[in-house]
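Input.
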Amino acid sequence: MPGKSITVRSVQGVEREETNVKAVQISTLDGPGAVEFVDLDEPVAAVDEIVIDVKAVGVSFVDALMTRGKYQVRPELPFVPGVEVAGLVRSAPDGASVKAGDRCAAYIPRGGYAEVVVAKPSVTFPLPDELSFHQGAAFAMNFQTVHFALVRRGRVKAGEHVLVHGAAGGVGTAAIQVAKGLGATVTAVVDSDANVGVAESAGADAVVVAGDGWAEAVRAAAPGGVDVTVDPVGGDFFADSIRLLRREGRHLVIGFAAGGIPEIAVNRLLLKNIDVVGVYWGGFIEQDESIAAESAAELTRLAREGFIRPVVGNVYPLADAAKALTAMEDRTASGKVVLAVDVVD
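Output.
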């Protein structure tokens, strides 16, 4: 719940009531352990914005990078991280897809690690009844990202074979489920035997453990190669992933969780007419927010048909955000890591 209310005087001499909220703030770029759990003024919505009482917040690898200033977006310090939330609508303008009291999921550029947020109607959507708040914390970005990746950027068709790297993480498990919903066969690559079950629970048809011989194992699962590779990992996996693609295959570059940004001799692309495709959903919707509503409608349909059930990993109280971010940085997390705000799922 938001913190206590206090009365202050405006510059015009008119008294108004402000409310403090609990939030997690990055004040220094010293890593996950340095984030602070603080009281901040409740955000004030413009007339065309939605106010959300947050119930769950999605934690991403990007958030961990931002605690060290290693992400390409570097907000001025101090700032509240977090871009995807699920909660209850407190107020909404006319014409929004949600109204007061509705369960919702929303994407915000930052500020999600807080009890209350404001969001644009164009990136706030009803949370399907089939999904809990914790699952909804993945609905506004992870699933939007992979739907954009697979449908618009990857042009996946029913019957194709999709290879998913980092398949035990939030993006990877989402990619498995959306690809299955599109009618694809999915081979998943995970980093350890312990995570095989995570990818299987997300719906993968075959699971391969990264290590010596992983590419050969994929070839056994996908004779003739794969049509599309979903890659949020990068690093040493890149070159072998290109080799695994069939003629006119598409390699979707979503991130670089392994830390290294790979390079390639482009003649490899020429020989099999291969596409290497960048995927940056957050940047794209800054130019065309309409794609978010289109994806939300399709993702809601897939949730109602049973394809989408976000795989939730560890759930931490908002006050323990440092622990959640450390798990992301150390790559010990699986599924979607969530911060819970006054809710038990």
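Residues 181 and 307 are 6 Å apart (CA to CA).
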